[in-house]
Specification:
This protein is an all-alpha fold. It has one domain. It has two helices and no strands. It has helices at residues 2-14, 22-39. The radius of gyration is 11 Å and the shape is globular. 0% of the residues are buried.
Amino acid sequence: MTQSFWVRVQVGLLNRRHWRTLLELSTALFEYLEIFHNRQP
């Protein structure tokens, strides 16, 4: 399950744009994880 989760993160977030700063990437990753976590039953 962990591997499929990281594939989703890569496809859904990381491959969609280039990040100018590490802060931008970490903020986007945090927001993505919050949405993913809150949708799980």
